[in-house]
Amino acid sequence: MTRAVTRLLAVLALAGLLLPEAAAALTVTDQTGRRVVLPALPARIVSLVPSVTETVFTIGAQARLVGVTDFCDYPPAARQKPSIGGMISPSLEGIVAL
Known about the structure:
By secondary structure, the protein is an alpha+beta fold. Helices cover 32% and strands 13% of the residues. It contains 3 helices and 4 strands. It has helices spanning 3-18, 50-58, 92-97, and strands spanning 26-29, 35-38, 45-46, 65-67. Strands 1-2 form a two-stranded antiparallel sheet.
């Protein structure tokens, strides 16, 4: 998974947490200039890096966190979430399933 896609997913996840009263649709542009339009704000988060997992817990949105990597071990409650594999080669099937 490229860094641009990883960053886009992180931005979308955090946008869904931080902008709950925003308009129904969400349009973002990734680092390659590609526009992505979502019909609604994201309701479920799959964290691909430990720092995002920690941030999600810090802002109190752990109920929306449905998946983490094998390396997401802080806070301890993060270990209870389903794992999608490693950070470099996560299971795309696992992410889609969540």
